[in-house]
Design goal:
The protein is an alpha/beta fold. Helices cover about 40% and strands about 20% of the residues. The chain has two domains: about 15-295, no CATH class; about 305-430, no CATH class.
Length: about 475
Amino acid sequence: MRPSSPSYIADFDSATGMLRAVSNYLHGQDYPGLGKGHAMGRLVQAANWLPQTVREQVYAVGGATEGHAPDKLDQVDAEKVAEWITARYPQRRYQAVMVGSASGALTHLSAAFDIPWLPQTFFIPVRHLQGSNDDPKRAMEFGRRYGPKLLEANPELQLHHMHDANQDRLMVEFMDYFRVKRLTLGRAYERFLEANLEPGGTIIVTECRSSWPTTRIGERHYFQHGALGGATEEEFLRGSERVEEYLERYDAPVRRWDSPEPDGRSPEAEWGFEEALRDDILRFAAQRGYKVKRLIFDEPDSLSPLVADFYRDWYRERGMKANRVLVESFIMLEPYWALRTGSVPFWMKFNMDPSVDAIESYLDAREPFDEINLMLFNNGVEAVGFPQIERWQRVLERARKRGQFIGVSEELHPRDFGSLGRYYIETRQKIEARYPLPGPLVLQRLVDFTEKRRGQYAVELLDA
């Protein structure tokens, strides 16, 4: 049995979810209930029987229960987190290991090549019951007070305190988002690589270039107001008519956020790559005789068109029709069932305007699919830049034969919290095709594909 995560690590986060999806696949398993199993799936589905306001409060309080006590942040141990991460994987030899930024599209590369992914970033939710979701300066001062305890105990970490009252409105009512990035591999990652990477194998550094305006609080400590999604950097900083309408609709005490003034740019808290880790990987690889490649992408979903096209070509080589696409959303993804159903995976980072723009652009430029299956993550908020369900329905209408939602209640979205369990059930029930799992591809296939398609994607695969 794989070990449980440390209590201070968020369960429902990009890095945690994608880690579970990848490690489950490498064990030959799927990803039910966001990696928490069938019982969790049934529990969240039961939440849909509650009235809307109660559902929202349950979601917010549920997030708060994950929160770690701020005065106990010195208990966070980055090496214990790394030990938990590496223990999730089968202990055997791999041709390559990915280390770095998260992206749902990477889970499908891991599945295709049978290789692990070790995240640079992880999320520590910190309890803040007296906070205010519309007061970023107050949140920043909370981080200034408690962040040093975390950093003093973990000199290998960099803290990116993120406050997003737009997409994460319900969650930041009771907690703060402390995202930390590894600056070095550390003992546990190094041990895993030495024991499991083939002699002369390849470390693939996954580097997302996404950045955000930040305020420096101290050494290795940054505050980030806002995040990637529907609202722009300028809207978080200066406001807009859209922000004013949104805050009025939620009965907020303000009509624009009083944002701390940024004094620079930093790697985006959730997705961006901190380059110090690459330097340490190069040192380690040179000492052990490993090769290093850099997989560089502009935004977390910049990889999605490349991975989708790679899968479509791969399916056709296997004699499959490659006429079905599975559109995934945030941590609602399924590398196992994408392959078992012969679905071309296209991952979206969230449920906001930029995500629907991305899938529309992809479909505009490709041969039509007979079947489009679409997941939508539910975060409980009709935020700035939130597309109405009708726009997603128009995406489904692009299918030549059948377009359908997977795990989505059209009437309840984005407050359909039951979708967090139902997406897995409906992936198996609504997509009827079944194919055997293929054997792993050799890494050179990815090298050849990216070289052949050079310039077509906002992605580079380089020798370090």
